[in-house]
1,2-phenylacetyl-CoA epoxidase subunit A (Arthrobacter terrae), 334 residues
Amino acid sequence: MMAQNLQAVGSVTPSQPQSQLDADAGQAYFDHVMAEDSRIEPRDWMPDAYRRTLVRQISQHAHSEIIGMQPEANWISRAPSLKRKAILMAKVQDEAGHGLYLYSAAETLGTSRDEMMGQLVAGKARYSSIFNYPTVTWADMGAIGWMVDGAAICNQVPLCRASYGPYGRAMVRVCKEESFHQRQGFEILLELANGNPAQKQMAQDAVNRWYAPSLMMFGPPDDDSPNSKQSMAWNIKRFSNDELRSRFVGMMAEQVRVLGLSLPDPEVRFNEDTKTWEHGPLDWEEFKQVLAGRGPCNAQRLERRRQAHDDGGWVREAATAYAAKMAAKNEAAA
Ligand SMILES: [Fe+2]
Ligand SMILES: [Fe+2]
């Protein structure tokens, strides 16, 4: 695929540093890669807007993984058994790993992790609205795994084919782990749903609480999502927000029957004419408020992140001092 691209654009090679490329030739190469549905790699020429869009999307995604650790970490010490604690701890650790892959992918676009983390702790960066909701019972661990990680899978599987190489490759591993997260959440709900009436009710309440916020994870409706069209033209996004949401609702509608629970939405149905799943109206005003920082836990999540960042300051200082010491040692030996 790459060899074909090279032939098509003559002297432009993807590994040349950006400064050596004439912008027209770079654009021609980029357009060709898009038309071929091939991949752009870090040293390839790319339009500034493409780079900016990716940095924004990948860093928001990384922030979501990192902030997303909080609502579940909240339950590690209260998990009902040693086995549940170990599973939940592993899951929260996976989310930290996802954040790290994604910060690394974003760094290949020329923005440092320090800068991205600085924007997050300053409250200037966005992350998924879902993580600003509280986790009030153990059943929320089940609902988050099944619904929130489930929505993440619907969103992220198509991103494995994203046109930016490091992002797509990070997504492949992330998605494998998300599948495990979803299964563990489903299993928590299944056990509760087959428990006593109070446990079953606890599972149903959690599903009721997380249903609408998880549907909103796909972002605003298509007619109110101005950047989606461009992201689709750049082969970053493959399906629209509404398409992905509908697919997710279908998945939930099938699986909820196995749980013996129900979705809190009487309008969920499969439309035989359009062959798509439909759902009832969502409160987009609430979505906007949560994104704007006025959700139930926004302040708490950011404060916790800031504190963790400050607490880790000595590790960064020590690593910097060690790197300087090693550099001086190598210089002296040379
Ligand atoms: Fe994740
Ligand atoms: Fe996950």
